[in-house]
Every structure is written in C-alpha cells, then in structure tokens.
Amino acid sequence: MNIPTSERLEKIYGESVQSAERFRALADNFKNKYGHDEAAFFTSPGRTEIIGNHTDHNGGRVIAGSIDLDTIGAAAKNDTSVIHITSEGYDEEIVVDITKIESVPKVVGTPSLVAGMIEAAKKFGFQTGGFDAYVSTNVIAAAGVSSSASFEMLVCTIINHLFNDETMSVSDYARMGQYAENVFWNKASGMMDQMACAVGGPVLFSFANGSQPEYQPLEFSFQSKGYRLVIVNTGKGHADLSDEYSSIPNEMMEAAKALGANRLCETSLEKLLENVDKIPNDRAVLRSIHFFEEDRRVGEMAKAIEKEDTAKILHLIQESGTSSWELLQNCYSLQNCKEQKITLVLALTELFLNKIGDGVCRVHGGGFAGVIACLVPLAEADNYVEYIAKYVGSENVYPMNIRAVGAVRI
C-alpha cells in the first residue's frame, strides 16, 4: 500500500520522516483491520482561535488558524451501506448503517457525530455510501483545540473524495459538522471550529451570512514576529459541559430578541445599551457587550496584521482574554466553582510573563475547562514550558505552529 509522497508530506508537515512513519503505521493498521490492499489518505488539523471568542454563533467575526496537530485517516469504499471506523487506541469500532440513521442514538459520542454528518450530507444534496476507515490523532481531546471538529472534517473529506468527486466546499464541510453537533450532539455550536480546521492557515472569518461564511486568508505567523504559541491543557476537558457552553449563544440570542433581532450581528452595542433595563438576565447583557467589543477587536486585529503591528496584535489578544474572563465568563464552570483550572493556570502564566516583561495569555476555545493559549517570546519559550509543566505536567504543554494546509486528501 502506497503512503503519501515525501513531497506532499513536506508541504503539510515541514518534514517527511516522522510523518511518513505515522502514515506507514496507519496503512498497516488499516490493512490488518479491514483487509484492503489500497486506500486513500486524509488529514484534518485541530485549530487555534487567535481572537473572536464565542462570536461565530451570533454572526460575528473570528481570526483562527489550523495547527500542526492533526487527525489522519486511511479509507476505502466497502460497497455496502455500512460505515466502519476504527480509532487508534479505542477498542470499540464505530458502526453506522446509512440506511438506518434514525436508529442511531443521539448524544452518545462519535457514532452520533458520524450519523449526524451522514444525515446532513443527504439533506444538503450529497452522495454517501459505506466505507471502512482507520483513524489516528494527536489532537488534544476535549481541550479546546477542536478534536471533534478535526474528526468531523476528516470524515467530510472522506465522503467528498469517495462519493462526491471532490465537489464539496469547505463551507459544506462546516455545515455538516455544525448540523451533527447541533442536532445529534445537542450542542449549540457555530461553524468556526469546523471552518478553521477545514480551510487551513490563519484566516479571518465572518459568520454574518449564516450557512455560507465568508473567509479571507491572512499572511501571518507568530514565529516570524518572535513569539511561540504554547497551548496548555489545564487538566480537565469540557466534554461534559455542553449546557454551560450552549448557554453563551442562547443568552446572546436572548438579548438579541429583546432588541428585535435574531442574532447580535443584526443589531448594535448602542441599541443594547439603550435597552439594558429590558433584559432581566444581567449575564446575557454582559455576554452581549463582550460580543460587540470582541467583533470590533477582530476587525482591529486584521488591520494590525496587515500593518505588521505586533504590539497592537498582542494588546488585542490580551484584551480579548480579559473580556472572556470578566464579561463572557467562560473561564470556569458554575457546576463546581471551586475548580478553576483555567483561571489558576492563567494566573500562574501571568506571573511568569510579568517577570519577563513580555507575552500574553488567554482562555482558548469554548472555555469553562480545558486549555489556555500563551504567546511567549521565542527566547523564553523553553523556560515557560519548563515552568508551567511543574503545575500541569509536561504531557499537557504543547508548543505549536499554525500550519498552512487544512482538511484534505493527501
């Protein structure tokens, strides 16, 4: 079985030795599990949210990028109506009959997501069929870098290649992933996670146009500006916090409806301030203020990137993180307010950054539990990794880069 070429691996990963070993092991496992002599190979990255925390679901703007952690897969048609997916490290095989989607229970993990994407594909006019796939990932699970969206976009690329002659767009991918999460996982997700995984590279997104997000690739890297992005897993995932997560878009929409709109992108901060007394939920007001100010910051960030104004970029990221902590209030869960892993690791990180006099940190992704993002000067990156590892363990500290390639067949 032929694995992806060295040239292709170099383009995606910047090297072709370790990645080739990874795909060789994937190919062997796929053949041993399903008996196919040939396979198509796929990759789908995780994502980092640079700025635009919880704005997508209310039609706002986000700057996000794919990262150099990814989910990879080998797949082939099996000429049946049944999908079989084996994930490395998991004993239980995912089995979904595409003719019996209604029989798949909802909110039971990965099988629900697969069933949701298949139902979405059919609703959106695409072809589906049975296939076998073996999947491996190094994306941090349940920790804010979108391991679920990475998997969803991998499945979309498989469906696109095997059954639709590469006619699906990245927006189609994102719509399918969002549908699966909304309908089959009962999670009020927007499309940002899926779009960032699918497109690749740093990208400015606008979600005002509903199911057809607009996006613009950006020329930018933290490393070229002298900083390393470090993602820190604070020690607890947010997989069991869907209600807390969903409360954010729901409360923002609650405020929007009080202003005569469906989503906050259809109204304004000025109108919100004029009608504060008509919204009894104070937290909904605070979260809505965050939305409007965060959307403004995203626009300013795009201009700062164009002007290569590094100081402004860092200032906006820090301001965004402060707003998430104070207004959005997604840095710890009210289910157990004494457990505050995110705020604790942020505080520990700020002590380090204040000591060296440079860098910023912020909550990353959905929040409530999971990860933070830190931008630290390259000269201090190893020192920060060593410092924060004392509190969270070295296995939970991930220096990383933004990669240029999104979810694709290799």
Can you tell me about this structure?
The chain has 410 residues and is of the alpha+beta class. It is 42% helix and 20% strand. The protein is built from twelve helices and twelve strands. Helix 3 (110-123) crosses helix 4 (147-163) and helix 3 packs across helix 5 (170-184). The two termini are 14 Å apart. The relative contact order is 0.16.
Per DSSP E runs of 2 or more residues, the count of β-strands stands at 12
Helix/strand class: alpha+beta
Q: Can you write the helix and strand succession as a string?
A: HHEEEEHEHHHEEEHHHHHEEHEE
Radius of gyration: 21 Å
Report the helical percentage.
Answer: 40-55%
Low-confidence stretches: none
How far apart lie the N and C ends? 14 Å
Outline the biggest β-sheet. 8 strands, mixed
Assess the beta-strand content as a share of residues.
Answer: 15-25%
Characterize the overall form.
globular
Mean pLDDT: 93
User: Counting H and I runs of at least 4 residues, what is the number of helices?
Assistant: 12
